[in-house]
Amino acid sequence: MAFSTWEAPENAEGFRGCRSPHPAAADYFHSLLSPHETPVGLSAGTFRPSHAEICRAMAYIDPHIHMVSRTTDDYRRMAEAGCVAITEPAFWAGFDRSSPAAFADYFRQLTQVEPRRAAAYGIDHYCWLCINPKEAEDPVFAREVISLVPEFLEAGNVLGIGEIGLNKNSKNELVILEEQIELAKRYGQLILVHTPHLEDKLKGTRLTMDALAAAGIDPGRVLIDHVEEHTVAEVLDRGFWAGMTLYPDSKCTPQRAVDIIECFGNERIWINSAGDWGPSDPLSVPKCHREMHRRGHARSLAEKISLANPIAFLSQSAAFRLPSGVRPPA
């Protein structure tokens, strides 16, 4: 299976006007070339793709990244690396918001401002809405925020409810999780789940899956994110989709992600950068592709994980459209 390709749309002024590619991009795409793909007249190992050729690189989707905390240069670098679409879950801003009105402004940012920023670089922008588990400890406050969500579901780029879940596995967090699951059920929305950090991850993952099952939610319409070696098997065995977050210092490195794929297969699983205001890398998805190539995996594996699988899951939402110029994976 050949990699899908993408060309910058004619209206992508910001992309077409960008300068030289990110320094890592040429080396990355060169690393994906096998000897028989070296152009005629050049010996293996001497070819470096041009800027235009990089723009025709493998198309990929980063299905979990917080672009409100990234610079416009990050959009440019991602576009140069082949990113054609991103989805951005609502999350904690690094501080607790002081009022529901702050969330209303945030939801406007996700549904109005970020799509315009992304479009300037030929990237489709989608989002998920909710109150995140870290700010869900006060049920009264959380319910005020939840009451704002339905009016924003009409925005054209909203895929569902997320990232909901648990932070400390507290009783109040679980109550608000259950209420947001019901919100998704009432409006027929997909669900994207945040799982707790390492010390509470297994327990929180199980509590979340039990809550989803109790509500009668189809597990095939739920993505449980931040899975690691000790949670991925249960998530997949119960029929949910699994997301691996590629962080430099926590969650899952590109190397560990490929280990997990080798152990558990490539069905109902994807990788994402979850790039935010902390230590993170908006190019971690293509760097994971490079790790797959280093281990001798076919290009089709990267395409399956980073294009075919996200398209299969996200297409369950009426809001999602195949990115312009991208061939549907075979």
Give a written overview of the molecule.
Helix 8 packs across helix 9. By secondary structure, the protein is an alpha/beta fold. The protein has a single domain, classed as Metal-dependent hydrolases (TIM Barrel, Alpha-Beta Barrel). 45% of the residues are buried. 42% of the residues lie in helices and 12% in strands.
Annotate the secondary structure layout.
Blueprint: H1 13-16, H2 23-31, H3 51-55, E1 60-62, H4 72-80, E2 83-89, H5 100-119, E3 124-129, H6 139-146, H7 149-152, E4 158-165, H8 171-187, E5 190-194, H9 198-214, E6 222-224, H10 232-237, E7 241-245, H11 254-264, E8 269-272, H12 284-294, H13 299-314
Parallel strand pairs: 1-2, 2-3, 3-4, 4-5, 5-6, 6-7, 7-8
Helix pairs in contact: 5-6, 6-8, 8-9, 11-12, 12-13
